[in-house]
Design a protein that fits this description.
333 residues; two-stranded antiparallel ribbon; 11 helices; 14 strands; 30% helix; globular; binds S-adenosylmethionine
């Protein structure tokens, strides 16, 4: 069974934000100053997330990703991983993390049933890392990457948000780093999501420019790979690095949107189901759940929400028209 929206897209992928808190303050993700965090009462409990996760999987979701904020900050996350990973119809449970805390728990996560991790890393230069993240320590991320590889969380994917005059000169060095360590690198265009995302729109580098800049010297071009990865419905286009078996992906939400094949939705840490990253539509699942809604009633709300999934986002129309209601950290980027 799977859920279909009114444009015939099968919705099979859910990203779940388990917290809005983060131990980094990336300037394109979080606005400066103290973030407005949900109170303890506003946050879904782990039991509530596990219940909703089970219902989503019953409805046909077969890939779940835990994200945030920084998911490794959520206490007892391992319990949630174990609960979700045990759902028989779930094909894959994965996690997006900044890896600061990963060296302590990579093996435990793997043993609990986590299949793989995506790690955010925008630069290999400690000073640039500290600047982007407003004080983060690069060495801890590198230790986290090593731990993920060592724990067998395969493949380890690295997400690099490419920003003009910040890290765009590091594209070739990041490719070399990924090849050397057996990582799958994905370049990401900045998205005008939230106040911080809107603020970084002027640093936008398009996918086409990223491809052009990936070629340093004769031998290092990117050759498009014919078969899309991730079941054909993932947002990344993949390229093989000339002279190597390694591949890199490019996620171009703005310059070449992939809404026609969008198979995903998001659950915020407050229990709102968000149908499109670039839209305002959301459905509150927490209140009815706390008011005693049955599994069948919650499933009907989810089905109805899926039917209302918007056809496409509007990032490409202009940054000022994009969502500024959400910050990526609250949405579960
Ligand atoms: N804390 C985790 C991490 O660092 O990976 C998970 C949450 S973070 C919001 C998820 C991803 O969203 C990161 O890879 C980050 O680079 C990306 N992201 C945040 N704001 C973005 C923006 N404005 N444009 C593109 N990607 C963004």
């Amino acid at each position: 069974m799977s859920m279909e929206d009114s444009y015939g897209r099968a919705i099979r992928y859910l990203r779940v934000s388990v917290t809005d808190r983060c131990n980094l303050r990336c300037d394109y993700c979080r606005p400066a100053g103290e973030p407005l965090l949900p109170t303890h009462q506003e946050l879904l409990t782990l039991e509530e997330i596990a219940r909703l996760g089970r219902l989503f999987v019953d409805l046909g979701i077969d890939r779940l990703r835990l994200t945030g904020g920084e998911p490794l900050l959520r206490r007892n996350l391992i319990w949630l991983v174990r609960e979700l990973a045990a759902l028989p119809s779930l094909r894959e449970l994965s996690l997006t993390t900044n890896a600061l805390l990963l060296d302590r728990c990579a093996t435990e996560l793997k043993q609990a049933g986590l299949a793989r991790v995506n790690i955010s890393l925008d630069t290999l230069d400690p000073a640039t890392f500290a600047r982007i993240t407003r004080g983060g320590e690069l060495s801890r991320v590198l230790a986290g990457i090593e731990a993920a590889v060592g724990a067998g969380l395969k493949p380890v994917k690295i997400n690099m948000v490419v920003m003009r005059e910040v890290n765009d000169h590091e594209i070739p060095a990041m490719i070399d780093f990924a090849v050397q360590h057996g990582l799958v690198l994905r370049f990401i265009e900045t998205m005008p999501v939230g106040r911080a995302g809107l603020g970084s729109a002027h640093r936008f580098v398009s996918a086409d420019e990223i491809v052009a800049r990936a070629c340093h010297g004769e031998e290092k071009g990117l050759i498009p790979v014919a078969n899309p990865r991730e079941g054909g419905a993932g947002p990344a286009r993949y390229f093989r690095i000339a002279g190597s078996a390694a591949e890199v992906g490019i996620i171009s939400a703005r310059s070449r949107h992939f809404c026609d094949t969008c198979n995903r939705m998001r659950l915020t840490s407050r229990g709102e189901l968000v149908l499109c990253l670039g839209g305002m539509d959301q459905v509150d699942l927490k209140t009815p759940m706390r008011d005693g809604a049955s599994d069948a009633e919650l499933c009907e709300m989810i089905r109805q929400a899926v039917r209302n999934k918007p056809r496409q986002h509007h990032f490409q129309v202009g940054a000022e028209e994009a969502s500024s209601l959400w910050d990526m950290s609250g949405l579960g980027g």
